Amino acid sequence: MMVQRTSNTDYYKTVFFTLFTCLWFVGIILGEKAPAMLSICSIGQVLSVILLTHPKKLWANFISDKGMLIFSLSFLFLLLSFFYSDNLKYLGERLQIKVPILLYALIWPSIGVLSQKQIKVIFYSLISICVISASGILTNYALNYDKINELYLQSKIMPGPINHIRYSLLIVFVICVIYYFIKQQLIKSKIEKKLMMATAIFLILFLHIYSVRSGLLTLYAVIAIGVINQVIANKNYKQIGIAAGALVCIVMISLAISPTMRNKLINTKQDVNVYTNQENPNFNSLATRMVSYKTALEIAKENIWLGCGQGDLRDKNDALFKRDYPSIITPIIPHNQFIYYLAATGLIGLIIFSLTFTAPIWVNHFYKYELIQFAYAILLIAFQFEAMIETQIGVACTLLFVLIPYYLSQKRIAMA
Question: Total domain count for the chain?
Answer without folding.
Answer: 1
